C-alpha cells in the first residue's frame, strides 16, 4: 500500500528538518510499497516553504502545500485532500520518529483489519516528550508520557476512507487545542476502535522551560479554554466535560492546589528560576502546571458564563 504522512506546520523549521530527515529513513517492507510525506505550511513566517522547495532533492518522498493561515484542522484537511495513500498517518512537525515507525503502524493495522474483516480502527503510537533538540531519540519513556486521549494527531494512523466518512476535522477550531479529540468523539460514535501501537515511536520535542515562555503558555491555556467550549457544544456530554475540565470538581481541585490562586505564575517565579538554573526545568514545568490549570479552568467557566452555557 501507499502510505501518506500528513504534517501541518507553522514556524517550526529547525525541528521540522529533523522530522523530515527521520521520515526519509523509514524501513518499509511487507505491504508498504511506498510512502509520501505531505507537508501543509500554515503560512509560516520563518521561510519554511522556501527552504523546503530549495532543498527538495534531499527529501524524495516530500510533497509541499501552503495555505493562508487557518490553523491545524484546516491544514490537516488539506493534507488529506491532497494525499494519494489509502492509509493516513498524522504526526506533528515537532516529532522525530524511529526507522520502523511506519512499518509498525501498518503491521498493527493490517493484522486487526484481517481479524475484524473491516477497517474501522486506528493505531495510536507512543509519544515520548523530550527537550533534547540535538538528540531527541535519547529520551526514555516516562510516566508523564502516558496519554489517555482517544484520538490525538501527534501519532496516529487511520484508513483514509474511514477518516473521510467521519467528516474530517472541524475547521471552527482555529485556536489551540481539541480539534483532534473532537474528531475522536465522532470516530468513537462511528464504532472506530483505538488500537495501541507502542512500537510506533515518536519523540516529541518540547523546549526546556524558560521564564520568558510563561506569557505564551498562559495564552495557550486561554485558547484551549475557548476551544474546549466549542468541543463541548458539539458534544454536550459529561465525558467531554471531564476531558476539558469543565466541572466544579476540577475548579475546586485547582483552587485548593493553588491555595485559591496564591500560588500563581508570579509567586512561583523565583522558585522556577532557581530550578531552571539548577537543571531542573522538568520539575519547574510540573509546578507551573498548577497555576496554568487554574487559569485554564477559570477561563472555561468565565467563557461559559458569557455565552450562557451550563
Protein described:
The chain has 310 residues and is of the alpha/beta class. The chain folds into 2 domains: 2-205, Alpha-Beta Complex (Spore Coat Polysaccharide Biosynthesis Protein SpsA, Chain A); 211-306, no CATH class. It is 44% helix and 18% strand. The protein has 11 helices and 8 strands. α2 links the parallel β2 (34-41) and β3 (62-66). α7 crosses α11, α9 packs across α11 (281-306) and α10 (269-277) packs antiparallel against α11 (281-306). The N and C termini lie far apart (47 Å). The mean pLDDT is 93.
CATH superfamily of the largest domain: Spore Coat Polysaccharide Biosynthesis Protein SpsA, Chain A
- Oligomerization state: single chain
Main beta sheet: strand number and arrangement?
8 strands, mixed
Total domain count: 2
Strand order of the largest sheet: 3-2-1-4-7-6-8-5
Topology as a string of helices (H) and strands (E)? EHEHEHEEHEEHHEHHHHH
Helix proportion of residues, in percent?
A: 40-55%
Short description:
With 310 residues, this protein is an alpha/beta fold.
List the helices and strands and how they pair.
Blueprint: E1 2-9, H1 13-23, E2 34-41, H2 48-54, E3 62-66, H3 72-82, E4 87-91, E5 95-97, H4 101-116, E6 121-130, E7 155-159, H5 160-166, H6 179-189, E8 193-205, H7 214-234, H8 238-244, H9 248-257, H10 269-277, H11 281-306
Parallel strand pairs: 1-2, 1-4, 2-3, 6-8
Antiparallel strand pairs: 4-7, 5-8, 6-7
Output the keywords.
310 residues, 8 strands, single chain, eight-stranded mixed β-sheet, Spore Coat Polysaccharide Biosynthesis Protein SpsA, Chain A, alpha/beta, 2 domains, 44% helix
Amino acid at each position: 500500500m501507499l502510505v501518506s504522512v500528513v504534517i501541518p506546520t507553522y514556524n517550526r523549521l529547525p525541528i521540522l528538518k529533523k522530522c523530515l530527515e527521520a521520515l526519509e529513513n523509514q524501513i518499509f517492507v511487507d505491504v508498504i510499497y511506498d510512502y509520501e510525506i505531505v507537508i501543509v505550511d500554515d503560512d509560516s513566517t520563518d521561510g519554511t516553504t522556501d527552504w523546503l522547495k530549495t532543498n527538495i532533492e534531499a527529501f524524495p518522498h516530500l510533497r509541499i502545500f501552503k495555505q493562508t493561515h487557518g490553523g491545524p484542522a484546516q491544514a490537516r484537511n488539506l493534507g488529506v485532500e491532497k494525499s494519494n495513500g489509502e492509509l493516513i498517518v498524522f504526526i506533528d512537525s515537532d516529532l522525530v520518529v524511529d526507522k520502523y515507525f511506519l512499518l509498525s503502524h501498518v503491521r498493527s493495522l493490517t493484522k486487526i483489519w484481517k481479524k475484524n474483516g473491516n477497517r474501522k480502527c486506528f493505531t495510536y503510537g507512543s509519544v515520548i516528550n523530550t527537550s533534547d533538540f540535538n538528540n531527541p531519540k535519547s529520551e526514555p519513556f516516562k510516566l508523564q508520557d502516558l496519554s489517555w486521549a482517544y484520538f490525538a494527531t501527534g501519532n496516529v494512523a487511520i484508513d483514509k476512507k474511514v477518516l473521510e466518512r467521519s467528516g474530517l476535522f472541524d475547521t471552527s477550531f482555529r485556536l489551540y487545542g481539541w480539534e483532534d479529540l473532537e474528531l475522536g468523539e465522532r470516530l468513537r460514535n462511528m464504532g472506530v476502535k483505538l488500537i495501541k501501537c507502542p512500537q510506533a515511536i515518536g519523540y516529541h520535542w518540547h523546549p526546556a522551560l524558560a521564564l520568558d515562555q510563561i506569557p505564551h503558555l498562559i495564552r495557550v491555556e486561554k485558547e484551549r479554554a475557548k476551544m474546549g467550549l466549542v468541543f463541548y457544544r458539539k458534544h454536550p456530554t459529561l465525558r467531554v466535560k471531564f476531558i476539558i475540565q469543565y466541572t466544579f470538581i476540577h475548579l475546586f481541585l485547582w483552587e485548593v492546589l493553588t491555595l485559591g490562586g496564591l500560588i500563581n505564575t508570579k509567586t512561583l517565579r523565583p522558585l522556577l528560576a532557581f530550578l531552571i538554573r539548577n537543571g531542573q526545568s522538568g520539575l519547574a514545568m510540573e509546578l507551573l502546571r498548577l497555576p496554568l490549570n487554574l487559569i485554564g479552568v477559570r477561563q472555561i467557566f468565565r467563557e461559559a458564563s458569557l455565552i450562557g452555557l451550563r
